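Preliminary data (for renewal application), flavin-adenine dinucleotide complex.
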Amino acid sequence: MRLVLIGAGHSHLEVLRVFGLLRPAGVDITLVDSQRRATYSGMLPGLIAGHYETNQIQIDLDRMCGFAGARFLNTALLEIDPEQRAVTCADGSRAGYDLLSINVGAMPVFPAVNAPANLVIPAKPIAELLPAWERLITSVQCGVVKNILFVGGGPAGIELLTAMQYRMDRLTTPGALSFTLVTDAEVLLPRHNARVQSVFRRMLAQRSVRLLFNRRIAQIQPGAAITTQGEHIPGDVFVWATGATVAPTLHAPGLARDPAGFIAVNEHLQSLSHADIYAAGDCASIRGKSYPRSGVYAVRQGPRLADNLRRALVGEPLVAYRPQKRALALISSGSRHAVAAYGPIALSGAWVWKWKDFIDRRFMSKYNVLR
Ligand SMILES: Cc1cc2nc3c(=O)[nH]c(=O)nc-3n(C[C@H](O)[C@H](O)[C@H](O)COP(=O)(O)OP(=O)(O)OC[C@H]3O[C@@H](n4cnc5c(N)ncnc54)[C@H](O)[C@@H]3O)c2cc1C
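Predicted structure:
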């Protein structure tokens, strides 16, 4: 039997770990990922802020595949052909499958109007964010960039803003740069409770971040973002951390999608249209369930996905995944300080950052023991 895993997202890391520990006999596993290393987004703001080194937040996929006894195709997936049961990759390689699983994450939603690529830094893919961040440091140090505008008032936008501001304050003259955050919502962090929202609103105001609510960016041009209302908001560089969509490059003719384009799966994480295709993490949408697209859920889906793939391979009945009703969010704020949000509860302080750091390091050590 041939199992092909597309993308080394959080769920597939767990599949590789589990299959490395106990693999059903006679199964050939192939992983396809465009990157050699999987970057853990939970620690990404800490890397940007300067609290971590790159190797602390990345997992080596060659080693991970070695542990799992999997073949690693280090290339981007171009197309899935569900009829022929084969995938085609950017380097021309093709792989046939009996069972396919997709965990390729999601991308920020861009405005309809094309923006000059060199002016926009998308929060995802992380592999592109990191070099763009290095280039941004140089541009700021050369004085080319003086005003950074963030689009998106969710956790990713806020964590990136606070991390970048913290680091820039240490690399340049504090206050030399100005920061703006634009959101189309009425509040920051609309999925979180009012106390968390006001903690960050106060914090960003104290740090002289210009906050603009109820504005949707329609166009980017050198020097400004233009809203749907025609307002020009100054910015030299635009960090894009809005909503999420499946990468438009994921071609899979006939594969069931939800209205937003995510891969539609049932409670077994199995495609609604093809019983031999599974999907998990940000790229998947579970029929009848509503939950945020976050790493927490992608991680939780990992063990269920691994078990269901094993069951499918040996012909056992599948088991349903039930998303938890609430998840703990630990949102960092630049320095070694973070805010915890759980239902109506909000807690903040240096100790919350230490707690987050502990959880994040524990996640990494689960996969680093394989090195
Ligand atoms: C700055 C930032 C901070 C965040 N912090 C948190 C946090 O603290 N907690 C939290 O829960 N969530 C956080 N998130 C959200 C989190 O990153 C995502 O929800 C999570 O990464 C989704 O995981 P995933 O398993 O779906 O896929 P991902 O982790 O996105 O992995 C996708 C993988 O697929 C590969 N891939 C993609 N396309 C292709 C292709 N065509 N061919 C081959 N390979 C491909 C990629 O290289 C990557 O390895 C944060 C996001 C950002 C941007």
